Amino acid sequence: MTAFSAKVDEHGQWFDTPLPGRLSDVFGLKTNAFYDSTVLRFDLDGKSISVNSRRYEVLELSTATVLARFTNTPDHSTAITINRFGKGNALYLATESNDSTIGPVLEHVLRLTGVQAGPYTPEGVYARSVDGRTLYVNTTEEKKTVPLEGSKRGMLTNCIYEGAMVLDPLASDLIQ
Questions:
Q1: pLDDT tens digits for the chain (176 residues)?
Q2: d(CA 70, CA 78)
Q3: Can you spell out the DSSP letters for 91-157?
Q4: Beta-carbon neighbour count of residue 3 at 10 Å?
Q5: I need a surface site. Which of 67, 104, 159, 167 has the fewest CB within 10 A?
Q6: Which run of H or E residues covers position 112?
């Protein structure tokens, strides 16, 4: 969950319970206040992450554990927490979700869970690998170049790709 979530109920009314509404036990915290900052930064997995948002929440932890703190807020406020709940874990990001923050957080989650990242694709191209074959789908209206290792054969197009594959707009190929 990210900051500014679960503040109003299904009727658009501000929760009259601790925030995040009806989820304080899941995330092991309460939100305490909101602040503005000129630039927000936190360290995660040895990398400094600059946040493209100026607002952050101050968290009051109960059972949650701190994963990262903002490095440039006056009291080094908590940036990310994790809380064991039921059979899983719940993470809370104390700022808005945007490209600058969610990418590094999701990479951390993948490492925590042991999930292997899929093949690299340019923006707008999606891929899924199963049993040594990878399906690439270009969902854009422009040609996209997908880097490949070595020589590969397209099972749908019968093309041989050397080091890269060019996918036409809205095209796909299954690589073996």
A1: 888 888 888 888 888 877 788 888 999 999 988 898 888 999 998 999 999 888 999 999 999 999 999 999 988 999 999 999 999 999 999 998 888 888 889 889 988 888 887 899 999 999 999 999 999 999 999 999 999 999 999 999 999 999 999 999 999 999 98
A2: 6
A3: EEESB---HHHHHHHHHHHHHHHTPPP-----TTEEEEEETTEEEEEE-SSS-EEEEEEEEEEBTTT
A4: 21
A5: 159
A6: helix 99-113
**Annotated domain spans of the chain:** 24-113, 125-175
* Category of 86 on φ-ψ map: left (φ > 0), alpha (ψ -120 to 50) or beta: left
Amino acid occupying residue 151: S
Residues contacting residue 75 through CB under 8 Å, at least 6 positions apart: none
In three-state secondary structure terms, 158 is: coil
In this prediction, residue 116 carries a pLDDT of 83
Nearest to 169 by CA among 127, 136, 141: 141
Q: How far apart are the C-alpha atoms of 101 and 41, rounded to whole Å? A: 10
Q: What is the pTM of this model?
A: 0.71
- Non-local (6+) Cβ contacts of 86 within 8 A are none
Of 15, 79, 91, nearest in space to 53 by CA: 79
Task: Give the domain 24-113 fold.
Answer: Rossmann fold (3.40.50)
Q: How many whole angstroms separate alpha carbon 21 and alpha carbon 5?
A: 9
